[in-house]
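Listing S7. Sequence submitted for prediction.
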Amino acid sequence: MARGTRPSSRYRHSLKIKVAWGEILSTFAAAVARGKNGWTASELDLSGLADIDEVVDAMRDAEPDAELALLFVESDDQYLAILRLDEGEDLRVFGSDSAFAEESRIGSVLLGEIEAPALELDDLTAGTEDDETDRPVADPDADPVGDAELLTDLGITAHRLLSLCGREGMLPSDVTAEICQQIGAGDEVEELREA
């Protein structure tokens, strides 16, 4: 995510303050699940989870019958991790910046064992899908990791995901909101933030 940007007022109601590796980081985790009756959203507390398997269990528990579950983890107005679980089994993970794993325990749990995505952030300068060509696209300090294609079948290509994460002024909450709006779960996540 772009560094040194404005704090998001959307965090006001739903933020949990966690102590992570000696630093206080603000963290919001939204589980968004699609079942037979559409999308649902619930906030997860990741502070006591020891490893990725426990995170997956928490995603399953949030909506046991979900065909598809997504977890959006926003940290410190700077980092975003997205986890995808299909049919409760197949886990895919993306992180906006590998520094999240180095700077917090939760980041380490979520991103500690994944590798860089096939599409590098530098490749985004070759062209964008947006008409907003006057805005800088990539944050040169970001090092995205994991599976940037995890949302492709939902209409968010790897290129689009990396563009959103690298765009100057975009906070993790902005990226989550835009993705959720596009996949049809925007209202559910917005209601969750305001609860």
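Caption to Listing S7: primary sequence and predicted structure tokens for the chain studied. The radius of gyration is 15 Å. Residues 3-24, 127-137 have pLDDT under 50 and may be disordered.
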